[in-house]
């Protein structure tokens, strides 16, 4: 019985240590809305995926029931900003950008809020609200 209890405690400690390595930004985020010039647009087909310094931008197409994706990197120089850079993977960035509101491969966001459930980013006079997916 003691071995089982000690094993359970060890597993809890290991999982707690692993959680400290992750930031609240880690994981998959589904965009819910974009606010620009007082206009709020509901969005549910765009996903931002963060894993350490890796990033994936996904766009879901309900018509074809498929995803369009582009990979890249993210960097948080501080708790209030994030820089995302898309790479030519799996397609050239130039062919992916027309499906987004980005004008170039690198985008700087200010982080208004990030917690376990919600992410709010701002860039180019737009406010992007995400939920943890």
Automatic annotation (TrEMBL):
PROSITE patterns: PROKAR_LIPOPROTEIN
Segments forming domain Lipocalin-like: 13-133
Superkingdom classification of source: Bacteria
Pfam annotation, one family: Lipocalin_8
Signal peptide: 1-18
Keyword Signal: yes
Keyword tags: Signal
Keyword GTP-binding found: no
Gene3D superfamilies in the cross-refs: 2.40.128.280
InterPro entries: Lipocalin-like
UniProt protein name: Lipocalin-like domain-containing protein
